[in-house]
């Protein structure tokens, strides 16, 4: 929200050179452009070109140069680093942007010196942190007021158990999307649905089982119309299973494809997120970020867990058990201490979890505080992303958000 306001009013002479991205989208764009350059070089110059290590032929340098030439102000929302490959790319890329005079403004849950904390081979990333602190002015913004929750206050919420949200989704399909119910079968909810292969990028697709489309549109309910207005696209809705989606080997590009194509997203069977399933939790939060960026209308239903009461998920924040401060990893209690290291419930470092992982996968696993080092950066980032995700769920699931986006 703060980034949106800044971007809107930032004075730049050439408006086309002012660009804003969510960080996931920016990284996807960079990876895609690097891939295109490599493919073009392979076709035009053969395989020998790939061993040319000069800066001018480095695809990261060339992509950075292109971005710098077309961008005076680059705004990146939700800056985070959880992968060593991204860390290495960013070091080179931002060096070019800063040398070419591009102004970079970012928001993040972490201070620059804390980015990629605990990550594998973090030493390769440290020069980038020095670069950031040299070229950027750091502002710590403290606020206890959640403006998203404030906007959604006293508004109907499309968040709850499946038994509550499923009938609401059925009503939305009938009244807003204007799909006529044709049966009572469970699959598709009795509504005619389509299965489709949604293009993602890099010649990949993602399978969508339950999608619904209507000739109704966002502007069709608007009281004002103009003959010069462009034709409206049909409203599209989708029903997704959280575990099926977030346990799959997919990432931000797949979620962006979903968020871009559909106007209404119903995510059902959302479980409690914990440390043992930190990959699922990371994908879930990335999905929420992409849906929010694309202004999707959102419904979320929670899964009723064994030995759990419904009250455990009365608010979106309840989806993130203990903010990952206390969870279970391979059947043992784990607490992340103030340094982000893993302790057992008695406060001692639980050093045998790496042995458990090594035994399960048959490989040597480097550990820190008993947790695989490669996963520490992503786990730490998740612990800072929960409140943002919870806040966005509250706003996207509110009737006030729906009225703003659809009408």
Structural notes for this entry:
By secondary structure, this protein is an alpha/beta fold. The chain is 40% helix and 17% strand. The protein has 13 helices and 14 strands. It has helices at residues 2-9, 23-45, 59-70, 84-99, 126-135, 147-152, 162-175, 242-246, 252-261, 278-293, 353-361, 373-396, 399-406; strands at 18-22, 73-77, 103-106, 159-161, 194-201, 204-213, 236-241, 264-270, 297-302, 326-329, 332-336, 342-343, 367-368, 371-372. It has a six-stranded mixed β-sheet, sandwiched between helices. A hairpin with a 2-residue loop joins strand 10 and strand 11 (332-336). The longest helix is centred in the last third of the chain and has 24 residues, at 373-396. The chain is globular and about 65 Å long.
Question: How are the SSEs placed, and which strands pair?
Answer:
Blueprint: H1 2-9, E1 18-22, H2 23-45, H3 59-70, E2 73-77, H4 84-99, E3 103-106, H5 126-135, H6 147-152, E4 159-161, H7 162-175, E5 194-201, E6 204-213, E7 236-241, H8 242-246, H9 252-261, E8 264-270, H10 278-293, E9 297-302, E10 326-329, E11 332-336, E12 342-343, H11 353-361, E13 367-368, E14 371-372, H12 373-396, H13 399-406
Parallel strand pairs: 1-2, 2-3, 4-9, 7-8, 8-9
Antiparallel strand pairs: 5-6, 6-7, 10-11, 11-12, 13-14
Helix pairs in contact: 2-3, 3-4, 4-5, 9-10, 10-12
Write a compact overview of the structure shown.
The protein is α/β, with parallel strands linked by helices and 407 residues long. It is built from 13 helices and 14 strands. It has helices at 2-9, 23-45, 59-70, 84-99, 126-135, 147-152, 162-175, 242-246, 252-261, 278-293, 353-361, 373-396, 399-406, and strands at residues 18-22, 73-77, 103-106, 159-161, 194-201, 204-213, 236-241, 264-270, 297-302, 326-329, 332-336, 342-343, 367-368, 371-372.
């Amino acid at each position: 929200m703060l980034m949106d306001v800044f971007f809107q009013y930032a004075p730049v002479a050439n408006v086309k050179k002012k660009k804003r991205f969510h960080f996931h989208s920016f990284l996807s764009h960079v990876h895609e452009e690097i891939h295109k350059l490599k493919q073009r070089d392979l076709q035009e110059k053969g395989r020998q070109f790939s061993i040319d290590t000069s800066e001018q032929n480095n695809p990261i340098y060339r992509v950075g140069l292109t971005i710098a030439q077309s961008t005076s102000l680059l705004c990146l929302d939700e800056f985070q680093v959880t992968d060593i490959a991204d860390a290495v790319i960013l070091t080179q890329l931002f060096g070019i942007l800063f040398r070419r005079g591009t102004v970079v403004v970012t928001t993040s849950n972490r201070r620059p010196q804390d980015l990629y904390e605990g990550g594998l081979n973090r030493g390769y990333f440290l020069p980038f942190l020095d670069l950031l602190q040299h070229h950027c002015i750091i502002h710590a913004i403290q606020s206890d007021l959640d403006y998203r929750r404030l906007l959604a206050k006293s508004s109907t919420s499309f968040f709850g158990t499946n038994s509550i949200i499923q009938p609401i989704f059925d009503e939305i399909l009938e009244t807003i999307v204007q799909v006529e119910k044709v049966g009572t079968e469970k699959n598709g909810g009795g509504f005619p649905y389509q299965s489709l292969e949604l293009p993602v990028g890099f010649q990949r697709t993602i399978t969508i089982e339950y999608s619904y489309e209507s000739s109704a549109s966002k502007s069709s309910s608007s009281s004002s119309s103009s003959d010069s207005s462009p034709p409206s696209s049909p409203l599209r809705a989708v029903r997704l299973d959280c575990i099926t989606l977030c346990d799959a080997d997919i990432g931000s590009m797949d979620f962006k494809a979903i968020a871009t194509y559909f106007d209404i997203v119903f995510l059902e069977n959302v479980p409690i997120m914990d440390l043992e399933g930190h990959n699922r939790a990371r994908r879930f939060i990335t999905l929420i970020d992409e849906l929010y960026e694309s202004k999707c209308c959102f419904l979320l239903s929670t899964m009723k867990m064994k030995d759990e009461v419904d009250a455990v998920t009365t608010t979106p924040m309840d989806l993130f058990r203990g903010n990952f401060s206390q969870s279970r990893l391979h059947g043992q209690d784990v607490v992340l201490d103030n340094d982000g290291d893993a302790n057992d419930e008695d406060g001692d470092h639980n050093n045998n979890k790496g042995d458990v992982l090594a035994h399960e996968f048959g490989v040597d696993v480097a550990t820190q505080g008993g947790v695989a080092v490669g996963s520490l950066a992503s786990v730490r980032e998740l612990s800072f992303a929960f409140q943002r995700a919870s806040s966005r769920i509250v706003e996207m699931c509110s009737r006030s958000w729906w009225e703003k986006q659809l009408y």
